Amino acid sequence: MANYSVFTKPWRDVPVPRLIEIVRGMGYNAIEFPLRDGAQVCPAEAEAKLPGLVKALADGGIRIDDVASTPEERVFAACAASGIPMIRVMFNPPQADDYLAQEEAYVREVETWLPLCEKYGVKVGIQMHHGRGAMTTADMMRVVSRFDPKYIGAIWDAAHSALAGENPEQAIDVCWSHLCLANFKNARYQMYGRDAAGSAVYKAYFCPGPDGALSWPRAVAHLKKKGYAGTWCMPAEYTGLTSEEEQAYAIRDLAWLKSLVEG
To answer: Residues 116, 87: contact at Cβ < 8 Å?
Structure first.
């Protein structure tokens, strides 16, 4: 049976019992947890409080498949103690003249995580993200492919792949050797006006699955063809919505994704 999780960032400030109600009400039994400042548990509290959160969620029928956090030792230790197999990160360097130098510096940083991956048995997944950094699947793999997939994995994201203008089948092929998680949200560029010189200004607009630039049916079909057995993660990211509206959209998108995966 396929596994589906939802990223609980939109509900990071609600009490845990309410979080359980929201997640179960949307039809999920797994989550990606934002182990960040401002969430139910923050990195500074991870070793003391993450195991308790995992237990409370498990008592409510929900597991944590991975955390979105910083790859520091206390986070590795907390994940290991809690049975959480992966930490999700992104490579988003600041603007600078020499991107390749920034990329190489990031590779050196990733190398420092390998002893922690081995010590704690926790993988780090690097996700592509539009903007400067690993904005395409190929950019992501310029970093990820240098490492053993046992320790460093690739997280393909349908929305950011859409914003990069990628062909889903090609993108999935490019990262398949290290693919550890598939994110299913969607996006398109939307014109928001013009700048002072008269050029059109476009911004990323995150929207329901059927309305974005990347074909979920094509992506799902290709992942199934290749034998993808990982979690199908729903980041529940939509532009300009309240958390209640995001919840409703996440329910509809999950139903559509399930129809594609299980149909």
So the answer is: no
**Torsion over CA: 233, 13, 134, 168 (sign):** positive
- Half-sphere exposure for 70 (CA within 13 Å, toward CB): 9
Which residue, 32, 72, 78, is CA-closest to 51?
Answer: 78
Interatomic CA distance for residues 71 and 160, integer angstroms: 22
Burial status of residue 120 (CB atoms within 10 A of its CB: 0-12, 13-18, 19 or more): middle
Work out how many domains the chain is built from and give that number. Answer: 1
DSSP β-bridge partners for residue 123: 86
The string of pLDDT tens digits covering residues 188-221 is 999 999 999 999 999 999 999 999 999 999 999 9
Residue among 226, 251, 222, 220 at smallest CA distance from 236: 251
Calpha distance 89→30 (Å, rounded): 19
Pairing assessment for the beta strands 231-234 and 3-7 based on DSSP bridges: parallel
Segments forming the whole domain that contains residue 225: 3-262
Q: Tokens in use for 179?
A: 């693919």
Residue 141 belongs to a domain with what CATH number? 3.20.20.150
Do the beta carbons of residue 20 and residue 60 sit within 8 Å? yes
Tell me how far apart the alpha carbons of residues 19 and 64 are, in angstroms, rounded to a whole number.
13
Tens digits of per-residue pLDDT, 25-81? 999 999 999 999 999 999 999 999 999 999 999 999 999 999 999 999 999 999 999
How far apart are the C-alpha atoms of 36 and 45, rounded to whole Å?
10
